[in-house]
Design brief:
153 residues, mainly alpha, 39% helix
């Protein structure tokens, strides 16, 4: 058997830099400009606001459905932003800009999830206390669609 040589990887430490807004970040896949390294064959993201789930239009949708989907999209964008910030803060736990932004977005994210539960149904167990219904002793978890239904109805 021949002798194996180990490879040595050199990965520079990420620096705080320019950030995408929440809508762009979800579409691109990172909040950091410096980490946007598309494959050479990939084209720039253009066209649909959300290439992951392109908008099918609002034909046949009620105003309530349009509002609900808009709020859900905003919650998804903020959730992604928080996930990417968390990954950054795992290795940069003393970065004051990152920590401040994390707290700001966390508050907005929590408020939007509370608003969604109050207006429609809970998105997680933590949102159940915010459900508003006629009977305060009712358990509202079953009011929304099941996760496998794949819709914001």
């Amino acid at each position: 058997m021949t002798e194996n040589n180990l490879a040595i990887a050199n990965i520079p430490i990420q620096q705080w830099g320019g950030l995408y807004n929440q809508e762009e970040a979800l579409n691109i896949g990172t909040i950091f400009h410096d980490l946007n390294k598309p494959f050479f064959a990939a084209e720039a993201v253009t066209g649909s606001k959300n290439p992951i789930a392109p908008e099918a239009g609002n034909q046949g949708k009620s105003n309530i459905q349009i509002e609900r989907e808009g709020l859900m999209t905003r919650i998804t964008q903020l959730g992604f932003y928080l996930d990417d910030l968390t990954l950054y803060l795992d290795t940069h736990e003393n970065d004051t800009q990152g920590i401040q932004l994390y707290h700001e977005i966390s508050k907005e994210y929590a408020e939007l999830r509370k608003q969604f539960a109050q207006n429609y149904y809970p998105l997680s167990r933590l949102c159940i206390p915010y459900c508003i219904n006629d009977n305060e002793t009712a358990f509202c978890w079953q009011e929304g669609p099941m996760p496998w239904e794949g819709a914001c109805i």
